[in-house]
Amino acid sequence: MEKFLVGDEWRSGNGESFESINPIDGSVAATLAQASESDVDDAVRAARQALETPAWRDMKVHERGKLLHRFADLIDQNAETLAQIQTRDNGKTISESRFQSKSAADMFRYFAAVCETTESSVIPSRGNYFCFSSFEPVGVVAAIAPWNSPITLEAQKLAPALAAGNAIVLKSSEVTPCIGLQYGRLAMEAGFPPGILNVVTGFGASVGRALVAHPGVDMVTFTGGTKSGREIAKVAGERLIPCILELGGKSPNIVFDDADIEQAVTGMLFGIFSNAGQSCIAGSRILIQEGIYDAFVARLTSATRALKVGSPYDADTAVAPVSSFHHRDHIEHFVERALSQGAVALCGGSRPSGGILDKGAYVQPTLLEVTDERSSVAHEEIFGPVACVMKFQDEEDLYRIANNTAYGLACGIWTADYKKAFRAARRIKAGTVWVNTYKIAEVNVPFGGFKQSGLGRECGIEGMREYMLEKSTYLNLADGPIPWPPRAANAV
Ligand code: NAD
């Protein structure tokens, strides 16, 4: 049974355990100890204590940077182990997991550099003061992560929060609980003081809730569904603590009449079917201009049919299993409901079968033609290899359809006309816009959502500032007592 990390102690909790199930074949990937409420309490206390120790509190930024570099080197050295664990936990193709190990190491290196950029301003004073602002860590950060890409999504929280000088209690998803434990191990090996990174395992309803509500937590950083995010935001609001929320999406991927068709087709496939559609930024609404609609749909449908659904270990697999059997059932239910509401399956729509496909949580890549933009499939996040295909007439029609969702995470625009692309990029409400490309997320570029896709930003320099508080300091330059109480000018 895998233990969780509190301070420098690997714990078994009070004996309760849970399993991570391998979605490739239904076998048990790992059995894990479940943290209790009192373990969560201890983890927050360990973080607080570590934060207050001079070894961390007074550490110079460049020394913190060195620790982050060591963490990055250890990720590189353990890249294959991390990749194998992630793929076993959530079924992602092994090539994508390997790529993510590399990206995670890069995130630590980037924030090791950003660490030394917390320069602040000297503010011209309106009185006789020397006035400056400076940045301090927020304190104890609760980091809560989803299951779709724990290697990168957890690193995206740990690296900036550590660079900013905080202490962390990480709770990974119960579906993919193992990467966080590896990160806990690597943090200790890198030489972070015990308690700076604690990792508790268990379910959102118990461990996650206890963590967010803990009075010793100073900030929450959450990536996950909008429903959970709203619940967490309520607790954080009640406690008046800052909260980063990276939530769901239903992003439009738009093809104008003048687009490079082959480039756009690949962009659509990659946008929705990579990682079996389990990406917050998946291009799950494919919007095609009417002049090319029929030809484009025919080309896209045949390209989708040609995608190989199979084992994440096969080099030519395009669509591997989804993360769990439970999630497969959820996706299938969505598709059935969409079909019953009038959507037409251009391809997919049923469970794939034969050989390995019978054992795992596989979903056929599915394109649903939707004519009624008000139907639920056009609005709700499915988080699987399922896209809605819709038609638009002109730009005004496009903006109406594209913005007709509660989400605002990302958007893809495919056109040869960059003036048009620029207009569309400004009119569509989304945190990230790609023109003639899709799903690019670079660590030095801020990332986050508009509308119900979230609050706050990860990545970029601002991504570290989110984990800091700004302090203003006034130094009095005048001699003598402060002129108070005030005296009348002609008083003797
Ligand atoms: P989820 O919201 O069910 O769970 C996410 C994490 O929160 C898990 O660790 C879970 O245990 C925990 N949790 C759930 N309820 C909680 C509560 N009340 N208090 C504290 N913790 C709680 O999401 P998921 O199913 O794991 O992930 C899929 C979702 O994540 C999708 O909606 C997807 O769009 C979103 N996501 C967003 C981004 C982004 O950057 N915007 C990235 C990846 C995934």
From TrEMBL:
GO molecular function: betaine-aldehyde dehydrogenase (NAD+) activity
Transmembrane segments: none
Family stated for the protein in its record: Belongs to the aldehyde dehydrogenase family.
Segments forming domain Aldehyde dehydrogenase: 10-471
E.C. code: 1.2.1.8
Highest taxon of the lineage: Bacteria
Keyword annotations of the record: Oxidoreductase
Enzyme class, first EC level, given as a word: oxidoreductase
Active site per UniProt: 246
Lineage: Bacteria, Pseudomonadati, Pseudomonadota, Betaproteobacteria, Burkholderiales
Short name of one Pfam family: Aldedh
Protein name: Betaine-aldehyde dehydrogenase
InterPro entries cross-referenced by the UniProt entry: Ald_DH/histidinol_DH (IPR016161), Ald_DH_C (IPR016163), Ald_DH_CS_CYS (IPR016160), Ald_DH_CS_GLU (IPR029510), Ald_DH_N (IPR016162), Aldehyde_DH_dom (IPR015590)
